[in-house]
């Protein structure tokens, strides 16, 4: 009887140790990794450039297993502030902003600062609030490249038109500054008209129609983005003057590349938005991991002409 009782006690003790061991294993199990949530406030998605920014961000976020929330301010600074407030309520780990207006967005950035959410800007800068970094292109360099390319296409002389973007953004101001710096080196080139079209194709069409009617001799046009270049081109086509005018844009969106291939545009400046979107998510990942980042990240710009339009890379 004693032997049976001893055997039973050994069995119970062994089973208890096994159960304790299992319990210890459960307690030490690695907790599931928290999924990173990123908010992306876009100034508009009614423009191929910014659609491509979103697509690049989505591609990188999907590859990294990140939850990405995208909003569209429809080029309305007030709507973008509302978008930012909504994103703050969703408690993202990081917020990325592509401003509709550099001055107006400062209010939104300050709200994000108050919420203690890491934030940075892409493409266009903010004129207020604290951001960890800014990712974009050198807009002065871009404008200068465009100006030099137009001067070369015109052999250093002729009548030129400048169609400007949203002058409340650093991008529009800096592209114009770079273009005019280049033009100043060519005394035989005259800027006969300079007007804003707010980076909008429809507005550029109307602007260019009026300029064409008022000026019988136009040799070159610089549009500060390709959407405006497409609007200007439509007006030039309608007037039958496309063959006489050298047109240069910026951004290297697909319609502009097609126009270069067709001989209707002289050049554009490749500032690939898809890669801008990817870089934004990569930077957000670094921030989430506590890694060091640069205060400013400047991506490369490339002149695209008929000579390299077939090989230029604008997305993965």
Give a quick precis of the structure.
It is found in: Cell envelope. By secondary structure, this protein is α/β, with parallel strands linked by helices.
Descriptive overview:
47% of the residues lie in helices and 18% in strands. The chain has 316 residues and is α/β, with parallel strands linked by helices. It has 2 domains: 37-137 and 273-299, 3-Layer(aba) Sandwich (Rossmann fold), CATH 3.40.50.2300; 139-270, Response regulator (Rossmann fold). The strands form 3 sheets. A 6-stranded parallel beta sheet has the order 2-1-3-4-5-11, sandwiched between helices. The longest helix has 26 residues, at 2-27.
What's the arrangement of strands in the largest beta sheet? 2-1-3-4-5-11
Distance between the termini: 79 Å
Number of strands: 12
From the 3D structure, determine the CATH topology of the largest domain.
Rossmann fold
Largest sheet: 6 strands, parallel
Q: What would CATH call the architecture of the largest domain?
A: 3-Layer(aba) Sandwich
Rg over CA atoms, rounded to whole Å, is: 28 Å
The CATH C-level name of the largest domain is: Alpha Beta
Q: Treating each run of at least 4 consecutive H or I residues as one helix, how many helices?
A: 10
Low-pLDDT ranges: 1-31
Number of domains: 2
Shape: elongated
What is the chain-wise order of helices and strands? Answer: HEHEHEHEEHEHEHEHEHEHEE
Q: What is the average per-residue confidence, as pLDDT, rounded to a whole number?
A: 92
Helix-strand makeup class: alpha/beta
Strand proportion: 15-25%
CATH superfamily of the largest domain: Response regulator
């Amino acid at each position: 009887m004693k032997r049976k009782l001893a055997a039973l006690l050994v069995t119970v003790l062994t089973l208890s140790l096994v159960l304790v061991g299992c319990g210890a294993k459960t307690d030490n199990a690695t907790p599931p990794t928290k999924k990173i949530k990123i908010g992306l406030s876009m100034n508009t998605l009614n423009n191929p450039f910014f659609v491509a920014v979103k697509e690049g961000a989505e591609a990188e976020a999907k590859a990294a297993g990140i939850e990405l929330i995208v909003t569209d301010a429809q080029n309305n600074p007030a709507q973008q502030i509302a978008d930012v407030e909504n994103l703050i309520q969703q408690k993202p780990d990081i917020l990325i902003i592509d401003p509709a207006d550099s001055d107006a967005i400062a209010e939104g950035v300050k709200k994000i600062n108050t919420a203690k959410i890491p934030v940075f800007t892409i493409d266009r800068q903010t004129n207020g609030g604290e951001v960890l970094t800014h990712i974009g292109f050198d807009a002065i360099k871009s404008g200068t490249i465009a100006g030099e390319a137009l001067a070369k296409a015109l052999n250093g002389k002729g009548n030129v038109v400048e169609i400007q973007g949203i002058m409340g953004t650093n991008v529009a101001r800096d592209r114009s500054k770079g273009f005019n710096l280049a033009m100043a080196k060519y005394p035989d080139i005259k800027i006969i008209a300079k007007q804003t079209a707010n980076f909008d194709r429809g507005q550029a069409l109307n602007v260019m129609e009026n300029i064409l009617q008022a000026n019988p001799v136009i040799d070159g046009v610089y549009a500060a983005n390709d959407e405006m270049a497409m609007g200007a081109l439509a007006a030039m086509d309608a007037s039958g003057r496309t063959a006489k005018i050298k047109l240069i844009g910026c951004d290297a969106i697909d319609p502009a590349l097609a126009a270069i291939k067709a001989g209707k545009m002289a050049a554009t400046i490749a500032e690939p938005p898809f890669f801008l979107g990817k870089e934004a998510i990569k930077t957000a990942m670094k921030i989430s991991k506590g890694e060091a980042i640069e205060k400013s990240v400047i991506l490369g710009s490339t002149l695209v002409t008929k000579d390299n339009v077939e090989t230029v890379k604008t997305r993965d």
